[in-house]
Amino acid sequence: MSKNNHEADVAFIQALAELLNRNELTELSVKREYGEDDSLDVRVVKQSTVVQAAPVTYAAAPAAAAPAAAAAAAPATAAIPEDPAQHPGAVTSPMVGTAYLAAEPGAAPFVSVGAQVSEGQTLLIIEAMKTMNHIPAPKSGTVKRIVVADGTPVEFGAPLMIIE
């Protein structure tokens, strides 16, 4: 392969990386044929870090502060949070996209922590390729935890909520 092909390939790979970022893709794979027994296979993958928003909890009464202080004094090993993806009531993302907790900006969220939901009720929306996909509750129960924040990207299989 000549130096010109090498420079062209580098420019091609850089263009693919820019395309990946501009379109909020996580992976792109391309095969470029030059002729017999001469091709270039490129796979560009963007490593994403999943940031989980801490759930908002409200104290019911000032008396709730005493157990919280006792829990803070407990050993650090007892304070390790469980993985929400392993929870039996976890609702996971069926696709890659952007999660929205409300129908539109400024509107009330579909559900909140402590809300009773019925099977099939819309929990949130995941936007994928300019399409708004309503994510229904897989079962009836109480929303115990909302794992994603409004407007955050989600991957396939990422935990969204916990329903018990």
Automatic annotation (TrEMBL):
Its domain of life?
Answer: Bacteria
What Pfam families does the record tag this protein with?
A: Biotin_lipoyl
GO terms of biological process kind: fatty acid biosynthetic process
Name the UniProt key words of this record, in alphabetical order.
Biotin, Fatty acid biosynthesis, Fatty acid metabolism, Lipid biosynthesis, Lipid metabolism
- Any keyword Lipid metabolism? yes
Q: Which GO terms describe its molecular function?
A: acetyl-CoA carboxylase activity
Q: What does the record give as its pathway?
A: Lipid metabolism; fatty acid biosynthesis
Q: Which PANTHER family match?
A: OXALOACETATE DECARBOXYLASE ALPHA CHAIN (PTHR45266)
Q: What does this protein do?
A: This protein is a component of the acetyl coenzyme A carboxylase complex; first, biotin carboxylase catalyzes the carboxylation of the carrier protein and then the transcarboxylase transfers the carboxyl group to form malonyl-CoA.
Q: Which NCBIfam families match?
A: BCCP
Q: What is this protein called?
A: Biotin carboxyl carrier protein of acetyl-CoA carboxylase
Q: Which organism is it from?
A: Falsigemmobacter intermedius
